[in-house]
TrEMBL record:
<dbReference type="InterPro" id="IPR006330">
    <property type="entry name" value="Ado/ade_deaminase"/>
</dbReference>
<dbReference type="GO" id="GO:0046103">
    <property type="term" value="P:inosine biosynthetic process"/>
</dbReference>
<dbReference type="GO" id="GO:0043103">
    <property type="term" value="P:hypoxanthine salvage"/>
</dbReference>
<dbReference type="GO" id="GO:0046872">
    <property type="term" value="F:metal ion binding"/>
</dbReference>
<feature type="domain" description="Adenosine deaminase">
    <location>
        <begin position="23"/>
        <end position="378"/>
    </location>
</feature>
<protein>
    <recommendedName>
        <fullName>adenosine deaminase</fullName>
        <ecNumber>3.5.4.4</ecNumber>
    </recommendedName>
</protein>
<dbReference type="InterPro" id="IPR032466">
    <property type="entry name" value="Metal_Hydrolase"/>
</dbReference>
<keyword id="KW-0378">Hydrolase</keyword>
<keyword id="KW-0479">Metal-binding</keyword>
<dbReference type="Pfam" id="PF00962">
    <property type="entry name" value="A_deaminase"/>
</dbReference>
<comment type="similarity">
    <text>Belongs to the metallo-dependent hydrolases superfamily. Adenosine and AMP deaminases family.</text>
</comment>
<dbReference type="GO" id="GO:0004000">
    <property type="term" value="F:adenosine deaminase activity"/>
</dbReference>
<dbReference type="GO" id="GO:0005829">
    <property type="term" value="C:cytosol"/>
</dbReference>
<keyword id="KW-0862">Zinc</keyword>
<dbReference type="InterPro" id="IPR001365">
    <property type="entry name" value="A_deaminase_dom"/>
</dbReference>
<dbReference type="GO" id="GO:0006154">
    <property type="term" value="P:adenosine catabolic process"/>
</dbReference>
């Protein structure tokens, strides 16, 4: 008999507090999906933007309930509220500073925050001004954490929106700021119908200038989207990437193992084999993947649950997987909570959870020396 979602969350809650004190790595977290509810309410009031609720707890619940739609497109609709209050340099600085402080409070010591500057120009900010404001806020947050004897390093992933035609322009912004806080590039937004091949010239420019790339793929679209992210997007990591499991065939064997357990044969298709053999990192966001319907095709029942997630299969087969939040406000999660939830679901111990931190760190866009220094901190603490 499988555990219910309520049982899993109850078990995860007991583990979450312990994990909060351990150093962690976050590679897939959207700035505009991770505001504090109270900050969103305050900033919305200043510009006269109407929110579903003026109560912080009620607003957080509303976002979580809206996220449980089973649709990526519906999930993305909630960002109209958050981006509305992130149109000035002052507000971007505040949101970015609080973003760092909140991650540090959850034990994160390295993060790559992704956001799309093109969505923050409604009140006249240039792309460069928006990137500079966010970096100022990130710097302020890191300084605050350091003043409290904490450690956190945060780099920007500049995203271009797939449904617009500004990728070439956004690439140039990312390149101008690569030595000023920007560590990489991403494309975000609706996946289906907007393949990476649409931005082939932009990805060629990035490869020429050797700025690393992560691409949202294998979330809202299937295996061909993953293939295109690897070929046209030249992705070093895959944002989510969970639908790479569609390229894996699992065949139940007639024979039983000596332990009396079922034996399965697994065949990897060409895309899955490429991702596994070359250790292309999968930036998995468990709760978000359930909410957006990314794992609906793997569900045994009518509605997908976390136990249907192919995460464990991918991990057991040697794929390079990490655990992320995607959007902490929208999904109503923390990184410690996601790790605890996945541990409760798949019976992982601290050893496996530490593996996910090292996987993420080694796949990050940090330099080799910086990765080595943080890896020592992580291994010492988790051991």
């Amino acid at each position: 008999m499988t555990s219910t979602a309520a049982d899993l969350r109850s078990a995860a809650a007991k583990l979450e507090e312990q994990l909060r004190n351990l150093p962690k790595v976050s590679l897939h977290d959207h700035l505009d999906g991770s505001l504090r509810p109270g900050t969103l309410i305050e900033l919305a009031a200043e510009i006269g933007h109407e929110l579903p609720s003026q109560d912080s707890e009620e607003l957080a619940v509303h976002f979580r309930e809206n996220a449980n739609s089973g649709s990526l497109e519906k999930y993305l609709e909630t960002f109209a509220h958050t981006t509305a209050v992130m149109q000035t340099a002052q507000n971007l600085r505040r949101v970015a500073k609080e973003y760092v402080e909140d991650l540090a409070a959850d034990g994160v010591i390295y993060s790559e925050v992704r956001w799309a500057p093109e969505q923050h120009q409604e009140q006249g900010l240039s792309l460069d001004e928006a990137v500079e404001a966010v970096q100022e806020g990130l710097n302020q947050g890191m300084e605050t954490v350091a003043d409290q004897d904490g450690v956190i390093v945060v780099g920007q992933l500049v995203s271009a929106m797939r449904q617009s035609d500004r990728a070439d322009e956004i690439v140039e912004v990312a390149l101008r700021h690569r030595d000023k806080g920007v560590v990489g590039f991403d494309i975000a937004g609706p996946e289906a119908g907007f393949p990476p091949s649409r931005f082939a010239d932009a990805f060629t420019r990035l490869a020429t200038e050797m700025l690393p790339v992560t691409v949202h793929a294998g979330e809202g679209d299937g295996i061909e989207s993953v293939r295109d992210a690897l070929v046209s997007g030249r992705a070093q990591r895959l944002g989510h990437g969970v639908r790479v499991a569609e390229d894996i065939s699992v065949i139940e064997s007639d024979a039983d193992s000596e332990a009396g357990e079922e034996v399965f044969q697994v065949e990897l298709g060409p895309v899955a084999r490429w991702v596994r053999d070359r250790q292309i990192h999968l930036e998995v966001s468990p709760t978000s993947n359930v909410q957006t319907g990314a794992i609906a095709g793997f569900a045994e029942g009518d509605a997908a649950e976390l136990s249907d997630h192919p995460f464990d299969m991918l991990y057991q087969l040697g794929f390079n997987v990490g655990v992320n939040t995607d959007n902490r406000l929208v999904s109503g999660v923390t990184l410690s909570g996601e790790l605890a939830l996945i541990a409760s679901t798949f019976d992982y111990g601290l050893g496996e959870l530490a593996d996910f931190q090292i996987n993420a760190l080694e796949s990050s866009f940090l330099g080799h020396e910086e990765r080595e220094a943080l890896a020592g901190m992580i291994l010492e603490a988790w051991q």
